[in-house]
Amino acid sequence: MGEQSPLGHGEAWLGVAECFLASSALLARCRVHSPKERLGLRLHFADDTSAPVYRETRLGSGLARDPCTLVVAFRLRLVGGPGHAVFRKESLLNTPLFVGFPGFTSKLWLAHDERDRYRGVYEWDGPERAEHYARCLWRVLALVSVPGSIRYAVLPGLRRDEFLTDPGRAGGLGPDGTEAWWRVQDTT
C-alpha cells in the first residue's frame, strides 16, 4: 500500500457514472443479493476498535477469481447520536455507487466504531480493480466525510472470509510499522 489519494475529478466521476449505469442493469436483473448470515457479527480491529456488520451486499456468488480484500474507512461529517441510525438506513441507497464497478463481488457494511469511523470490508476480483474503485469512491466520500479521515487497504490474494477468520494471513503492520488499523483481531 503506497500513498493514498483520489483519482482526478474527471476520471473518478466518469467511473462512478459508468458504475451507476451498470448497477441499474444488475439491480433490474435481480443479480444483487443481501444475505443475512453475517448480520450482527462484530469485527474487532488491531487499533482497539470494533463494529458490527449491519448489511451485506453480494453480486452473484460473491466469490472472485483473483481475490483480494479491500477495507475502506471514513468518518462522516455532522453525523452523531441518532444520526448514525439514519445513515445506516439511508446507506442502502448508495448500493448503485459500487455494485457496478468492474470486479465487485461482495461487501460487509460495518456500523460506526468507537471513533465514529465506518468501514466497508469487500471481496474484489483483482487488486487493480479494487484500487481503482477505492480511489473513485474517495471523491464520493469526500463530499460527506471529515477531511483526512478516508483511508483504504488493498490486500491481494486474500478472500474476504479468509481475512475475517485467519487474521495472520493479512499481515500485521501498517506502512508506519504499527499494528494496521484494518487488521481484524477476531470476530464475535
Task: For the structure shown, list the relevant keywords.
single chain, alpha+beta, eight-stranded antiparallel beta sheet, 4 helices
Mean pLDDT: 86
The geometry reads as: globular
CA distance, first residue to last residue: 28 Å
Strand % is 25-35%
* Broad structural category: alpha+beta
Please give the number of β-strands.
8
Q: Uncertain runs with pLDDT below 50, 5 residues or more?
A: none
Radius of gyration (CA) equals: 15 Å
Order of helices and strands: HEEEEHEEHEHE
Largest sheet: 8 strands, antiparallel
The level of helicity is 25-40%
How many DSSP H or I helices? 4
Blueprint (SSEs and pairs):
Elements: H1 9-28, E1 32-33, E2 42-45, E3 50-59, E4 67-75, H2 83-90, E5 104-110, E6 117-125, H3 127-142, E7 151-156, H4 160-165, E8 184-187
Antiparallel strand pairs: 1-3, 2-3, 2-8, 3-5, 4-6, 4-7, 5-6
Describe the structure concisely.
Helices cover about 25% and strands about 25% of the residues. It contains four helices and eight strands; from the N terminus they run αββββαββαβαβ.
Describe this structure in words.
There is one protein chain. The chain has helices spanning about 10-30, 85-90, 125-140, 160-165; strands at about 30-35, 40-45, 50-60, 65-75, 105-110, 115-125, 150-155, 185. By secondary structure, the protein is α+β, with helices and mostly antiparallel strands. Strands 1, 2, 3, 4, 5, 6, 7 and 8 form an 8-stranded antiparallel beta sheet that branches. Helix 1 (about 10-30) crosses helix 3 (about 125-140). It starts with 8 loop residues before the first helix and ends with a strand.
